[in-house]
Amino acid sequence: MTKAFLFDLDGTLIDTMPAHFKTWQIVVKEMGSPLEGESLMNQLYGNGAELMRRIVPGSNFTEEEAREIVAAKEERYRALYGNEITVLEGAREFLDEALAKNIPMGIGTASNQANIDFALDKLDLRRYLSAIVGADDVQLSKPHPETWLKLAEELNTPPEHCIVFEDAPKGIEAALEAGMKAIAITGHFSANDFGAYENILQIVPSLNVLNINELLYL
Predict the structure, then answer these.
(1) I need a labelling partner for 110 at 20 to 30 A (CA). Which of 11, 12, 16, 192 fits?
(2) Global pTM value
């Protein structure tokens, strides 16, 4: 059976993490959070109330309040830094080759639909994708496996035939829980940060060092 390629978006296909981080720094400082630098970066996964309670210690936001804060942050991110986002080195070439080989591809991300649409249309990435699962489509964010399992279902591919491409350990953990193999992309995390996950096939600095033909037979 043909493999399906399941991609995270931010930090895996597109270079947005510095912009997201700068925006979160502004937001949490305004909310009185003591987190900054690496302490803040390590907490930037997931979504909704669970995320906000971690990055603003002592807070007790309702899910509705948290989603409003996150949505406002994302709007601010697009306004401040939207013109700076780019496709990561090697990503488009990898997508072109996979598309030519008719490999089913989709995105599983914690971004909301507005951010997804903004990035895919601005960078002309939508044409590569057969399915998209974002924050608005799931109940539980990574490291819960729901995102990857739902994306595999939409791609009509069993989890054991899916390869996840991720730049964050929590996304790799979600792939492990979903029964999927994964490729770890180093960037904001080092190779050592991925050492605990037995589902990793390779740890690479960028997608363009991968051999797609080899991946199909792993």
Answers:
(1) 192
(2) 0.89
